[in-house]
UniProtKB/TrEMBL annotation:
PANTHER family: HELIX-TURN-HELIX TRANSCRIPTIONAL REGULATOR, ICLR FAMILY, HTH-TYPE TRANSCRIPTIONAL REPRESSOR ALLR
SMART domains reported in the protein's UniProt record: HTH_ICLR
SUPFAM superfamilies membership: GAF domain-like, Winged helix' DNA-binding domain
Name listed for the protein in its UniProt record: Helix-turn-helix domain-containing protein
Record's keyword annotation contains DNA-binding: yes
GO BP annotation list: negative regulation of DNA-templated transcription
Keyword DNA-binding found: yes
Keywords tagged on the record: DNA-binding, Transcription, Transcription regulation
All copies of domain HTH iclR-type, residue ranges: 6-67
A single GO molecular function term of this UniProt record: DNA binding
Domain IclR-ED residue range list: 68-213
Pfam families assigned: HTH_IclR, IclR_C
Source organism (scientific name): Streptomyces triticiradicis
């Protein structure tokens, strides 16, 4: 901590991060041990966060992230989309295919930004707001693959016909972006993804990740 920072705010944010990393919630005692502060401090932090609906406590007394974080999260997508658009435009024009940025939303993949090429005779229509299971389509599969891959080793995922008959896709996960889990990809009407597309998608994902850091 420095003279310019708030210890109380820092502790409150640490509480939220700890709760966000668990599916079953944490007790006051568990939070006290993890934070290295006494239970009275934790009670005060939780009471304040509850007032803002950022934390809720169940009947068993376990604290969990509250629905108030959703109101904050809604403002994230426009910021992420704006940062990603230059790289997506370049990717769509270069490959001649629809480019997209997809983020994890619960158990689904959610397209938050889509750019279509301007010079092709036809391309796949893909809309922002489109959702699909994480284990279907290149965008979701790339995210799942990144969860298992060594840190800092980006790769790409190819699929064919999983979301739309006759369409194939390529996607690469965003790497090294704190608090954002997603992928950058393209979708095209083709029998197979051209060889150069995979590495180009990896480059675009790296550009987006750099823009978000």
């Amino acid at each position: 901590m420095t003279a310019e920072t708030s210890q109380t705010l820092d502790r409150g944010l640490r509480v939220l991060k700890l709760l966000a990393d668990t599916d079953h919630g944490l007790t006051v005692t568990e939070l006290s041990n993890k934070l290295g502060v006494n239970r009275t401090v934790v009670y005060r932090l939780l009471a304040t966060l509850e007032q803002h609906a950022l934390v809720r406590r169940d009947l068993g007394g376990r604290a969990r992230v509250g629905l108030g974080v959703l109101r904050l999260g809604r403002q994230v997508h426009p910021l992420v989309r704006e940062a990603a658009l230059p790289a997506l435009r370049a990717l769509a024009e270069d490959i001649g295919a629809t480019a997209h940025l997809t983020l994890v939303d619960g158990t689904e993949a959610l397209a938050v930004a889509v750019v279509e090429p301007t010079w092709t005779d036809y391309h796949v229509a893909y809309r922002a707001g489109f959702r699909h299971a994480l284990d279907r389509g290149a965008a979701g599969r790339a995210i799942l693959a990144a969860r298992q891959a060594p840190v800092g080793e980006p790769g790409y995922t190819l699929t064919h016909g999983e979301l739309e008959a006759g369409a194939c896709g390529a996607a690469a996960a965003l790497v090294g972006v704190t608090g954002v889990e997603g992928s950058v990809g393209v979708v095209m009407l083709a029998d197979a993804v051209p060889e150069r597309v995979g590495p180009r998608v990896v480059d675009a994902a790296r550009e987006v990740a750099d823009a978000l850091r």
